[in-house]
Amino acid sequence: MELEALNRTLFLAVNADASSLPAAIEAASLIAVFAILIVPLLLCRDWLRGERGQRETALLALATILLALGLNQLIGLFLFLPRPFAIPLGHTFLASATDTSFPSDHATVLFAAVASYGAGRRWIAASMLSVVALAVSWARLYLGVHMPLDIVGAVVTSLIAVGIAEVVMRWLGGPLLSFGEAVYRPLFAPLIKLGWIRR
Q1: Is the pTM of this model over 0.70?
Q2: Are 36 and 106 in contact (CB under 8 A)?
Q3: Which of 112, 118, 154, 168 qualifies as a cystine partner to 103, CB 3.0-4.6 A?
């Protein structure tokens, strides 16, 4: 009960209300919905323009994200926690499904990417993604669609997933990377010839 009380207290401290500036709510809405797109854009950039090491990190990130989201689905089968507006608690400024709130899938994708790029020692990318992950987490609390524990859960599943993904990639990373390169090279041959993407 003390943990739940803390969860609610922290949520209400961050959550917007009727006195919040419309511009702040609009900015938070854009962050909450669209900032996550930086992940697929970064993965595509690293795969198409990066060196082999960058492609390995992108592949690790993709595996980690998929594993983390899978863990979220598994958790959802056994643990249903309602979103704040379903309790009801606080104020809601963003339309959202009424599925389980824990863990946050948006936060999971971003923190899984952070963990992967950190594991790949891509510190600049990891730092950039950390800022985005924190911004999205704040925005989804501010707009009333997640609770603080949902974000903590996302961090935990991301760390578990990257640990599993690193083990899997030690065995399958090389073959998967070679297969991926063999598939994409014929598809993007004209762009490779022009030097727009790497071979």
Answers
A1: yes
A2: yes
A3: 154
- Could you tell me if 113 and 62 are in contact, meaning their C-beta atoms sit under 8 angstroms apart? no
Question: For 45-82, what is each residue's pLDDT tens digit?
Answer: 999 888 888 999 999 999 999 999 999 999 999 989 99
Tokens of 133: 């992950």
- Which amino acid, residue 190? P
**What single-letter DSSP state applies at residue 35?**
G
CA-wise closest residue to 53 among 122, 134, 141: 122
The pair of structure tokens assigned to 45 is 């950039």
Distance CA 132, CA 37 (A): 10
With H, G, I as helix, E, B as strand and everything else as coil, classify residue 92.
Answer: coil
Q: How far apart are the first and last CA of the chain?
A: 56
